[in-house]
Design brief:
InterPro entries: Bacilysin_H2HPP_isomerase, Cupin_2, KdgF, RmlC-like_jellyroll, RmlC_Cupin_sf
CATH class: Mainly Beta
CATH topology: Jelly Rolls
Low-confidence stretches: none
Helix content: under 10%
Pfam families: Cupin_2
Shape: globular
Order of helices and strands: EEEEEEH
Number of strands: 6
Protein name: Cupin domain-containing protein
Oligomer: single chain
Mean pLDDT: 95
Radius of gyration: 12 Å
Largest sheet: 6 strands, antiparallel
Number of domains: 1
Length: about 90
């Protein structure tokens, strides 16, 4: 399960808090916006462009524009995402 809360969206930036439950395994995602994900708590496996990384509290993952990516939750987590430009489909 995924819970998103938009904390701020001004100018060309969007700041989003994402809560992911244990055992969540996301589908491959791809979008034009650049993304930086900060792991606030828990642990996840990020796959970006076919490369997998295990991330825990305090780690950061950069996702370039149009890169295929997905996440698999290892331990229930909170991720802070920054997007540029704004992800309009999330702002609705």
């Amino acid at each position: 399960m995924v819970t998103r809360n938009i904390l701020n969206n001004q100018g060309s930036l969007m700041f989003v808090k994402v809560e992911l439950k244990e055992r969540f395994h996301g589908e491959i995602d791809q979008h034009v916006e650049e993304q930086i994900s900060y792991i606030e708590s828990g642990s996840v496996e990020f796959e970006v462009g076919g490369v997998k990384r295990l991330l825990k509290k305090g780690d950061i993952q950069y996702i370039p524009s149009n890169a295929e990516h997905r996440v698999r939750v290892i331990e229930e987590c909170v991720i802070l995402d920054v997007f540029t430009p704004l992800r309009k489909e999330l702002a609705k």
